[in-house]
């Protein structure tokens, strides 16, 4: 290998234009964000609400927010880690949990704005087409647009489960059936039955049954928390039905409890100027002493 | 009747032409080569993005609210080709008279030969900014309102008008131990 020119030299760095911070972090898709967030100019300050759905490895985050220059304002949020309060203690990131979280978000929001009596949404969950309609003489339905982030839109994705939950909860989110589980792309047909099964976690129950039959050890390893909480394949649907009912009954968020935290440092505090100067003085003195001692010997 | 001649100039080496220049000559024999009328002629630098500002446009531009009567600056943004103002309006300031979905209508003054016309142009949001020229006036109005309210409460008369810089009052100056030297103009004397 002969001489290879250094690519990242001073000139490179001088000319380099960094991408936006959130793009560098790989968290925001600005192409999508511009189209989601921007309101028509002739609607001036009226907010354009979006339903944000994000999945982490162990949690689901759903929020309703609108954009302002100072920063987006979140008016309502629901997390999957709140579901234990409504009876769902395990499987917090599956399709059924996503549905519950979306439902919780919708009911919470409508409750907050006093619209929950007017817009009940779909109380009998059947996984079928449902679009909220404006009720005459009353405030219009709450409209939000789904914000997926960087998630891939595939048929049967859990993000759409969260959206379905919100829609059945009474929010007006424009959507189509194409990406729900139960949609057959070859025949362009939607099976509400399959979708309903997913909403009630039947796909999880099926897997539980098949594993239990085939391989006990794998079943114990995969569904250890389910077993611990006494959830069997037959209980699953009931668990989610109860959850839906509990959510509809009391969607208000639990008030935050202020924790008393004693301040603790994880690293050393920076020295003051006086301390630094003194430290240098001490080092010089000790070095001088060492030299003198060596000179004597 | 006009004749079109083409003259090939430039070195011809080994039978291959390196430089050809074509000109259209009218009967009168003059060559017309006026400025081209391209819409964005001469805007190579005007509409270019400045150093290290390329790429995605920040959302603040899309989130600012414009109302009728707002005073706005027009500055063409090369990253968005739609709804660009003509180069003549780049750097001009005008008043909003109309707001549509993605653009605003602005009334701008344009000098055409000997007169100034108030023109109405439609410009997309990306090429428009709130002008700060109005801000100082608005600020002063608010301050005056406060002063007036305060004066009403306390009964102390308030000075609302802006005063130009007044001549300096008499004051003492340190000379640093130096004796001051009086400097006067020499009295006029007629010199032949």
Automatic annotation (TrEMBL), chain A:
<keyword id="KW-0689">Ribosomal protein</keyword>
<keyword id="KW-0699">rRNA-binding</keyword>
<dbReference type="GO" id="GO:0000027">
    <property type="term" value="P:ribosomal large subunit assembly"/>
</dbReference>
<feature type="domain" description="Large ribosomal subunit protein uL18 C-terminal eukaryotes">
    <location>
        <begin position="236"/>
        <end position="287"/>
    </location>
</feature>
<dbReference type="GO" id="GO:0006412">
    <property type="term" value="P:translation"/>
</dbReference>
<comment type="similarity">
    <text>Belongs to the universal ribosomal protein uL18 family.</text>
</comment>
<keyword id="KW-0694">RNA-binding</keyword>
<dbReference type="InterPro" id="IPR025607">
    <property type="entry name" value="Ribosomal_uL18_C_euk"/>
</dbReference>
<feature type="region of interest" description="Disordered">
    <location>
        <begin position="249"/>
        <end position="297"/>
    </location>
</feature>
<dbReference type="GO" id="GO:0003735">
    <property type="term" value="F:structural constituent of ribosome"/>
</dbReference>
<dbReference type="GO" id="GO:0022625">
    <property type="term" value="C:cytosolic large ribosomal subunit"/>
</dbReference>
<dbReference type="GO" id="GO:0008097">
    <property type="term" value="F:5S rRNA binding"/>
</dbReference>
<dbReference type="InterPro" id="IPR057268">
    <property type="entry name" value="Ribosomal_L18"/>
</dbReference>
<dbReference type="Pfam" id="PF17144">
    <property type="entry name" value="Ribosomal_L5e"/>
</dbReference>
<dbReference type="InterPro" id="IPR005485">
    <property type="entry name" value="Rbsml_uL18_euk_arch"/>
</dbReference>
<dbReference type="Pfam" id="PF14204">
    <property type="entry name" value="Ribosomal_L18_c"/>
</dbReference>
<feature type="compositionally biased region" description="Basic and acidic residues">
    <location>
        <begin position="268"/>
        <end position="281"/>
    </location>
</feature>
<keyword id="KW-0963">Cytoplasm</keyword>
<keyword id="KW-0687">Ribonucleoprotein</keyword>
<protein>
    <recommendedName>
        <fullName>Large ribosomal subunit protein uL18</fullName>
    </recommendedName>
</protein>
<feature type="compositionally biased region" description="Basic and acidic residues">
    <location>
        <begin position="249"/>
        <end position="261"/>
    </location>
</feature>
